[in-house]
Amino acid sequence: SRKIIIDTDPGQDDAVAILLALASPAEIDVLAVVAVAGNVGLHHNANNARKVVELSGRREVPVYAGCSRPMRRTLVTAEHVHGDTGLNGPVLPDPIIPLQAQHGVDYLIETLMSAEPKTITICALGPLTNVAMALVKEPRIAERIQEIVLMGGAYFEVGNITPAAEFNIYVDPEAADIVMRCGAPITILPLDVTHMVQSTKPRLDAIKGLGNKSGQAVYDMLTFSEGFDLKKYGWDGAPLHDPTVIAYLLKPELFAGRVCNVAIETASELTVGMTVVDYWHVTDRPRNANYLRSADAEGFFALLTERLARLP
Ligand code: BDR
Ligand code: CA
Prior knowledge:
two-stranded antiparallel sheet, binds calcium ion, alpha/beta, 13 strands, Ribo_hydro-like, binds beta-D-ribofuranose, Inosine/uridine_hydrolase_dom
């Protein structure tokens, strides 16, 4: 099975992604979950990561905390979407599993440097601060990473936190820039994909109908965060972002896109955090990312529901 490290700011949709990965041990071996500041502050995100790991019944999976703020900028958070704890909605018990003492960035470096090259994939579900800091502190990890699969950015759907930028990239554009240029294989699940994967009422009812603790928790998470998105977009359902990263590992055939250059705007005040995607190959800049732009939503929700059924 494929070894991954989940770097995340849970976050209801992050939590669903973590559960999807932990429900799929035949294909995915989750080495650790590393928290980063993003949706809310690091303390809450790390605590939420522990709660979610515990909910899955996989207490052996260690949880680390990484950076508490972006590389250069003041942290921008999204309590208006995720609630004050970052994971409002379900009532989850205080976690028993500990937070690991080692810093998340050092864990990333140590793990990548001691494993066989190209055997570990990083799944990044929040701002890219931890991944970029690891690349700065130990540049040799770049050639040892199997792949970075990240949720972030947008091209056709443009922005969700500013008219030009998607949240994860906007919060730490300098970090995103470092990651895009690092040379490791990158696959991107942008808003173009996640806006096609909507948690409509029948899809959420099917998850609640599983009758297990995890299904109920996912239902409560997604009905909470959905409230905000339904108003914002006026669609039947709300986009489900981060779980697409794990679904891509499980069933890449659910997604389509192309390899092209992706660059990050870090200077302009108006468009900072914009992902500039050379989708039509109009430049000769290096083709650094597998940029996905569409998803099979029915197939995605069938997979998610089937996997959640396996959890407690
Ligand atoms: C991203 O921002 C966060 O709020 C979500 O968890 C997701 O990672 C979507 O723009
Ligand atoms: Ca996230």
